[in-house]
Amino acid sequence: MKNRLIYSYSVLSIVLVIMLTFACKKDDPDPDNTVKPATPYKFEVPQGFPTILNIPEDNPLTVEGIKLGRYLFYDGRLSGRDEPDSLMSCATCHLQSQAFEIGENHPKFTDGHPFGLTGIKTPHYPLPLFNLIWNNEGYLWNGMIYKGNTHLGYPAYGVPAEEPYNMTNIESLVWMGIIAPHEMHGSIQMTVDMIRSIEMYPALFEAAFGSKEITYDRISKALAQFIRTIVSADSKFDKMRRGELSYTQSERNGLILFTTEEGADCFHCHGAPGNPLMTTNLFYNNAKDVVFNDPRDRYAVTKDARDHGAYKATTLRNIELTGPYMHDGRFKTLDDVIDFYSEGLIYSEYAHPLMHKVFPPYGNGAGLNPQQKADLKAFLLSLTDQTLLTNPDYSNPFN
Ligand code: HEC
Ligand code: HEC
Predict the structure, then answer these.
(1) 214 in a domain, yes or no?
(2) Closest listed ligand to the CA of 271
């Protein structure tokens, strides 16, 4: 009797197991339960930094997404080709050693001005990639990529007005980079086909997005995730802010010049200890010219007459590494830039009102003496962040 009972229990459990297995096979795309959901990434806001982050709702940061993005960032086959002379990735023009800009001493892109696979130079000099997660005002020198932008397509490159060709966030920079003749000069299809053909990627996509499927949407999301994690918050300036190090007398004098209107008056546009991003991420005409005909200035985006000749007041973090300076690279050195703000300003009706030193009672600049110039430069050099340049999390994962 006892034996029979055990027997029927066993039969019952076998039947149950078979039924369950069947049920799973039917509906579950992942019958072996091998794909774990991606791990949410905890983004740590450094002390004193803003807490409002630019992370689109449909692309939360995950550990696996960031990992995949880092591979893609450094993979020259992102260009859609694998011949040695047609490789190009984001890292071709955004180098960790140069704060993810090109810098002035690049062996191929002499004078810091890159060109695409066609040999055509980029319309403007590059921008560094760090602390972009805090930019809610718009990407690129003129801010043409911004949240809520409903514009689609790019007729100049024959790109139709349809998804995924939007211009809303870092994700959008991916299709632009792939297609632009001054960058990869390829197509989304070529890039997707190429990445699909590489053995290591399906597993990385599965870990990041739940299935092995490789799409443009996933490529652009992973790249944007990686870029959002690149943070610069550990320069001497930061250590001074946190009370870990003190400034030299010269650096301190430079900081005072930087943050006072009677001094050099830089802080309205480029930040201060209260705004450690060292940029407002806003756009100004900083009084360099009288004629404005660049088809890619801020005016091209807003059509507001006050925006002729206006560009983003870029962050001054790591400014030592990102010369030559301004959107058109017109100043070779930081000394040239300081001389410009000291005595080289040129009045036009478009000069931004915050360029106080170009209006009466001033005229062509802050009029700094040699010691003040040296102090201002010492302060600017204190914004270089070695931790950014050496952080293994941002380095080339293929090495
Ligand atoms: C051929 C060189 C080159 C390549 C390759 C390149 N970039 Fe850039 N990048 C630039 C230049 C130049 C700018 C500034 C363009 C402008 O504003 O006119 C820029 C700007 C950016 C910005 C805006 C930064 C800011 O502060 O507004 C982002 C984001 C960016 N690139 C991401 C990428 C990504 C992602 C890739 C790879 C898909 C990539 N770039 C590949 C040259 C390049
Ligand atoms: C009214 C706003 C404003 C003020 C004030 C101002 N700047 Fe700028 N700054 C800008 C803008 C806008 C740009 C980019 C212009 C361009 O690319 O054509 C810029 C560019 C720069 C650059 C080059 C950035 C790069 O990535 O190439 C440096 C360096 C710089 N400013 C330093 C200073 C210093 C030092 C002061 C004070 C003496 C100062 N700025 C005052 C708006 C301002």
Answers:
(1) yes
(2) 2
Q: How far is the CA of 46 from the centre of ligand 1 (A)?
A: 25
Residue whose CA is at the smallest distance from ligand 2 atom 6? 266
Interval between CA 315 and ligand 2 midpoint (Å)? 9
- Backbone phi, then psi, for 130, in 5-degree steps? -160, 155
Q: What is the pLDDT of residues 32-89, one digit of tens each?
A: 667 889 999 999 999 999 999 999 999 999 999 999 999 999 999 999 999 999 999 9
CATH number at residue 252: 1.10.760.10
Q: Ligand 1: distance of its center to the CA of 94 in Å?
A: 7
pTM over 0.90: yes
Residues 86 and 202 in one domain: yes
What's residue 325's pLDDT? Answer: 98
What is the pLDDT averaged over residues 168-179? 98
Same domain, 27 and 70: no
Ligand 1 first shell, C-beta below 6 A: 88, 90, 92-94, 114, 116, 122-124, 126-127, 129, 132, 139-141, 170, 173-174, 177, 183, 223, 227
Burial 14-24 (b: 16+ CB within 10 A, else e): eeeeeeeeeee
Instruction: Give the span between the Cα atoms of 252 and 61, in whole angstroms.
Output: 38
User: Does residue 341's CB lie within 6 angstroms of at least one atom of ligand 2?
Assistant: yes
Percent of the chain with pLDDT over 90: 89
> Does the structure show a pLDDT above 60 at 31?
no
Query: How far apart are the C-alpha atoms of 368 and 357, rounded to whole Å?
Result: 11
Average pLDDT, the chain: 93
Per-residue model confidence (pLDDT) at position 7: 47
- Closest C-alpha residue for ligand 1 atom 19: 126
